[in-house]
Amino acid sequence: MSEREGYSQEVQRFLDEEPDAQLTERARVDAERFREALARYASSLPVPGRELDAAVMSVVGARPLGGVRGLVRWLFRPRPVLLRPVLIAAGLVATTALGWWLGQQGGSPPVPGALIAEAPTVLVRFELRAPEAVQVALSGSFTGWDSEGVALSKNAQTGVWSVTVPLPLGEHEYSFVIDGQRWIPDPKAHAQVDDGFGQTNSVIVVGPRGVVRS
Amino acid sequence: MSVPDEVVVQRILAGEAELFRILVRRYREEFARYAASLCGDADVAADAMQEAFIRAFDALDSCREPARFKAWFFRILTNQCHNARRGLGVRGRLDDIVVTAADRADAGVSDEELREAIDAALGQLTPEQREAFVLKHVDGRSYAEIADLLGVGEDALKMRVHRARDALKKLLEPWS
Amino acid sequence: MTGMRRCAVLLAIALVPATRVGAQDDVRAQLLARGAPTAFADRVAQIVGAAAAEDLPIEPIVTKALEGWAKHARVPPDRVVTVLERLAVQLRTGRDVTVAAGVDPAPAVVAAAAEALGRGVPAADVQAVMRAAPSAEGAATGLTVAASLTAQGLGTDAATKAVRDAYMAGRPASDILEFPSVVAGLVAGGVPMSDVARRILEEGGLPLPSEPGRGLGRGRPSGIPAGRGPPDEPPGKGKGMGPPTEPPGKGKPSAP
């Protein structure tokens, strides 16, 4: 495709988010038009909703798992699955989650007030701008106030750390933990409250439609 | 918090089939937008996603690396979306839409019209260009991540995305 | 305790069968597994046991204890114990207020009442919310939301009126759970909190977002599909692992 018909190389590099792309005014107009059109398209796109989940499970529930091969594997798999090394390697976070699942099976859950997988949950995204931090974690009522918490991932370019977590409906108290030491409230939370220990916890209330923040 | 796919898959294969719901939810959330754009229609996308999940469940024991469930499922879903789109036949002639837009260059364009136009433009692309473009500009993923999902090198991906953008540029000119 | 040992201990706890382990043993075991000193764990267990014996809800106390231990680098154990004892007193007050309202003191309701009182909602307003709610669950939700709205800065009058009016208009608890997000969205859109409060007090009630999955104006719910923006899983480390097994379905042609 000739230069005339397509975008200039600089615009292509800019849209690829190359750090040293330089744009003329004309090229900038092209690029912004592209971005705006796509942003509008993406945000207005109707997508399959959560009713899909139940539809899939109603079909899948009636099927044998993996056919005959699956059945044979199931019969001979060592039990309990929990003690396999891969699960310990998966880390404390996965272990805690299994504890919650087991709590759901019956008996007292090992982490009181913890997430129960069957309650309806909503994905909630947490973000914190902390370009200097080496490690950022999320600790709160929904993690049983585990000191290690849920790790966030860093966007190297923007210095913003983020994670998306399924939370049950209702109120949750939490804090970010930076570098394992500093407990920092979430500026975007619904409210900040005294934790009783002289520090501040953040509060969000999760409704069925998600969380809107300030 | 996310329990790793590997753990969920292994427990499903050990007999707890109901845990598949976790993967359904997780990857519907992850790929719904991608499927809707690839199929050009939310209902068609829902059918394609449902079919993809069912196939994934049936073949779950052949997923050799449970930790890579996401990329494995992605491949199944993409196949279903391409099939679904093919089944719909030619969707809107791009020329018609471009002419219409030029007539109405001064009028505002509704979201629906823009969607139809972009969908028609995407329909003109090869399946590989369409996949890469949607992952890049509808989902907002990085090239590194797209490379991982598609199993294709970043250079080849950039070429696909550049060509797709060029195809759209022509379309977007009447809408300034 | 090393990571491995801690994992093993937690797994052992996780595998404890369904025979009833006392609530105080639960929290004690949890704290010890996390490396807390025995004296502290014992004291916490004592407080929890005493609360349980009085039929007070113990979950808030247990959660607070775990939080206190998580923050132990900054918070001395004695301070945590004091906070827990104060919390037990607050729960007792919550129960008294609930009973005085003629409402059944279900644990969730008592806990929510205690929290609301602790956040400065007057007892009379707490009772009014409870009575307006259609069920115990609704009462707990309503009180929690009123407490949050208060902490957001709405003022207790507006906070409790918003919840009460909603219940009296027959709105379900799920609508009420949206209120903190609605308020945050309004404020993000530039409406001063005092105006929001005035709107509630004079015009009655809070609006709801008109479309599912979307906040008001600029506010964007973070519950939208994760297809937007970077995902929570890191980009695959699988470069050395080779491509995934070809799944069923048509093969992919390798075109440029």
Question: What are the defining features of this structure?
Answer:
heterotrimer; A: 214 residues; alpha+beta; 31% helix; extended; B: 176 residues; mainly alpha; Arc Repressor Mutant, subunit A
The helix count of chain C comes to 12
Strand content of chain C: under 5%
Number of strands of chain B: 0
CATH architecture annotation of the largest domain in chain B: Orthogonal Bundle
Can you tell me the number of structural domains of chain C? 2
CATH domain fold name of the largest domain in chain B: Rna Polymerase Sigma Factor, Chain: A
| Proportion in helices of chain B | over 70%
Summarize the model shown:
In chain A, 31% of the residues lie in helices and 24% in strands. Chain C has two domains: 100 residues, no CATH class; 89 residues. The termini of chain C are far apart.
Note down, in words, how this protein is organized.
The complex is a heterotrimer of chains A (214), B (176) and C (256). Chain A has six helices and nine strands. With 214 residues, chain A is of the alpha+beta class. In chain A, strands 2, 3, 6, 7, 8 and 9 form a six-stranded antiparallel β-sheet that branches. In chain B, helix 2 (20-39) packs across helix 3 (42-58) and helix 3 (42-58) crosses helix 4. The longest helix of chain B has 20 residues, at 20-39. Chain C has 256 residues and is mainly alpha-helical. Chain C has two domains: 1-100, no CATH class; 124-212. Classes of the chains: A alpha+beta (214), B mainly alpha (176), C mainly alpha (256).
